[in-house]
Amino acid sequence: MSALHIRDLHHRYGLTEVLSHIQLDLFAGETLALVGPSGCGKSTLLHIIAGLLTPSEGTVEQDFLGTACVFQEPRLLPWKTAQDNITLGLKALNVPKSARQQQARHIANMLGLTVDDLGKYPHELSGGMQSRIALGRALIIQPDLLLLDEPFSALDIGLKLELYTLLRQHITERGTGVLMITHDLMEAVRLADRIVMMVPDPGRLVGELVIEHPHAERTDAWIYKTTADLMTNNNVRIGFGLAQGTLDLPEHAHKQHSGCNI
Amino acid sequence: MNRLKNFIPSTLNYLWSGWGALASLLLFCAAWELAAEHYGALILPGPLDVIAQLQQLISSGIAAPELVISGRRTLYGLSLALVVGSVLGMFAGFSITTSMLARPLITLLLGMPPIAWLVLAMLWFGLGDATPVFTVFVACLPIVFAGAMQGTRTLDNHLKAVAQVYRLPWHMRLTDIYLPHLVSYLFPAWITALGTSWKVIVMAELLTTSDGIGAALAVSRAQLDTETTLAWVIAVLGVLLATEYLFLEPIKRHVERWRMGVSQ
């Protein structure tokens, strides 16, 4: 089974330590949500996993075949139409043009974009549409590892729910491993199999919650309740800066984090 | 189909915008006429006289060969500068070290008066075609180089990250990421270089060669013929305007069609 293993990872920008002693495992078919306040190093960790940054210390091993990344901003190429943006990864894989166009139309349909939208340039599209195109650009290459950096934060609630469904469908069909960063605990509870909490100064992983409840049975009521329970947890409140105090955490002695609670 | 639909109105729009340019040129001619009436035909002939003189030069078959000779020299020097400057500038822009090394050199080259290059070129190449061609090349090179380097340096890191994550091969990074961004910096540099090239060629010809527009200007100066002098100047400016607005600008509009509505 494909997997990602991070061991003893430290990262510094100059003299400032931004990530400290990170240990993380992610297996195929698993969705891991990384939650934590702004500036705690979540994006830096994601960039290291995506291969955009080299960590100061530690190892990142992964044997996933294809990796795709959806960044916090859509990051579309302004000189390419929506269609050419979506199919960028396919073009890099030498997929012929007709096949690219066909797949782009298919994925655009799933994302709620019209054929007319596909011919437009990014500046002619709304922010929500740009985010959808960025997601389409990632999904179209059928990655085994999907890295998501708050891709849904600019979307309205209706669209979010549609894209959650689409993403879950993709994960179930493909067995994709997903690492998603989010501020939104409810989003994490809805989508993730494991939630890992990160705190700043320096950025470190402080606890993990495994959600064993099957995805098919996660009703809105269950999600609201679980999120509310989580929000009352003292460690979570301290982690997000909602309460004063020090985190009361068990030591992480074992290698694979599979059940220690926040 | 969609592109064709956009193409027709944008072309008509472009042609229509020519009225503004024409109006401003005619306003200039009116001011010129006024000045001509004040100073008299010996010092400053009016625009109509100059245009008549130019027509006469063209119909008598004097203008065309000189224009072709000067045009050919400009074309050689300028194309060489555009190709070499764009490619080298882009490579320099890829690394911070080369950019830092190149910057003072560009300042140096930009500050070097073309006339100094001309004197050196005369010593190196003699009085043949090579002298004006070299002078144009060396005067335009730093302009294009600086544009290309600046363009490469300013590419958004976010887009570079996209290219890396989606594993774009080097040729795609060039054609899909770098070049479309670079064009916005290259075109203004190319247009400046075009203007410089004609200025330099006329000067170089005036001092070194026996043919071309510069040489013709030298003759008309010797004969104190202001009308013919101005007619040659008008001919050069006409070629310059035509190259920019009938050749470079349409290409720029085509390549940067994605900008339509962004910054206009």
Provide an overview of this structure:
Chain A is built from 10 helices and 9 strands. Chain A is α/β, with parallel strands linked by helices and 262 residues long. In chain A, helix 8 packs across helix 9 (220-232). Chain A starts with a strand and ends in a 23-residue tail after the last helix. In chain B, helix 5 packs across helix 8 (170-208). Chain B is globular and about 70 Å long.
Find the count of extended strands of chain A (DSSP E, 2+ residues): 9
Q: What integer value in Å does the Rg of chain B equal?
A: 22 Å
Give a count of the beta strands of chain B, DSSP E runs of length 2 or more.
0
Q: Structural class of the secondary structure composition of chain A?
A: alpha/beta
| Element string of chain A (H = helix, E = strand) | EEEHEEHHHHHEHEHEEHH
Report how far the terminal alpha carbons of chain A are from each other.
Answer: 27 Å
Largest sheet, strands/sense/barrel of chain A: 6 strands, mixed
**Helix/strand order of chain B:** HHHHHHHHHH
Strand content of chain B: under 5%
* Helix content bin of chain A: 25-40%
Which terms summarize this structure?
heterodimer; A: alpha/beta; 3-stranded antiparallel sheet; 10 helices; globular; disordered C terminus; B: mainly alpha; 0% strand
Describe the protein's topology:
The complex is a heterodimer of chains A (262) and B (264).
Chain A: E1 3-13, E2 16-27, E3 31-35, H1 42-49, E4 57-62, E5 67-70, H2 82-86, H3 88-92, H4 97-110, H5 115-118, H6 127-139, E6 145-149, H7 157-174, E7 177-182, H8 185-191, E8 194-199, E9 204-210, H9 220-232, H10 234-239
Parallel strand pairs in A: 3-7, 3-8, 5-6, 6-7
Antiparallel strand pairs in A: 1-2, 1-4, 8-9
Helix pairs in contact in A: 8-9
Chain B: H1 2-39, H2 47-59, H3 63-94, H4 96-111, H5 114-125, H6 130-153, H7 157-165, H8 170-208, H9 213-222, H10 226-255
Q: How would you briefly describe this protein structure?
A:
Chain A contains ten helices and nine strands. Chain A has 262 residues and is α/β, with parallel strands linked by helices. With 264 residues, chain B is mostly helical.
